[in-house]
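[Q] Does anyone have a clean structure-token version of this?
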Amino acid sequence: MKILILILLLITNSVYSQISSGKIRYSTRFNVKVILQDTKPNPHLKSMYENVEAEVERSNSFLIFNQDSSEFKTEPNLPLDKNKAAHSLAQGIISSGIHFVKKDEYINLRKVSGKTFRIKEIQSIDWEITRDVGMIKGYKVYRAYGNKYFINAVSGNARQIKIEAWFAPAINFSYGPKGYHGLPGLILQLEDGPITFFAEDINLFQKDNLNIKWPSEGVLISKEDYDRIIGENLKNMF
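[A] Here you go.
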């Protein structure tokens, strides 16, 4: 496996080395079955998530990046008729705020009840790069797997989700959707639980003409403290 990673790094450093920045548009798919697989049959719940699915598939997300950092966010759009609740839930499921990555630093900017939080995330994933190869938008991609651990804000229980990423070594940037990073190439497809991101438009530039403003507004807080605050607020609602 170390030899494979070394080969990919050599490819990364020799191909498209003149690229300085880029912008990727991702479409999104929502797998209702993943959400409902551990729940009892409920027609109302199924109907709600089908509405969420329709809203998710209307969304576009954008990753912009340069030599120093990246920014990922979902473009706001208007909800379908009578789908305002599903629209809000879909927006939260897709991106959960704006994601900024700079080397090993990762900030998730979120606004909750009119208050802005700069959540300092630690998303160090031990990626397992496989020998599976594919093509996405003309780029040769390799499949990698990783595990994400998180704490349920309400129950306090730890959970683990398997992440699948397809990355392109020819695009020499270690970024991807929703703050995922750390692979020797740009992530063009990402499966994160029920959500899958697909690169649709890939725009690469020789000049660094994309300005990414590192967030400074809002309360700087750890992910653990943020989850605790949200969990307490949710419990108080019931």
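[Q] Thanks! Anything notable?
[A] The chain is about 25% helix and 40% strand.
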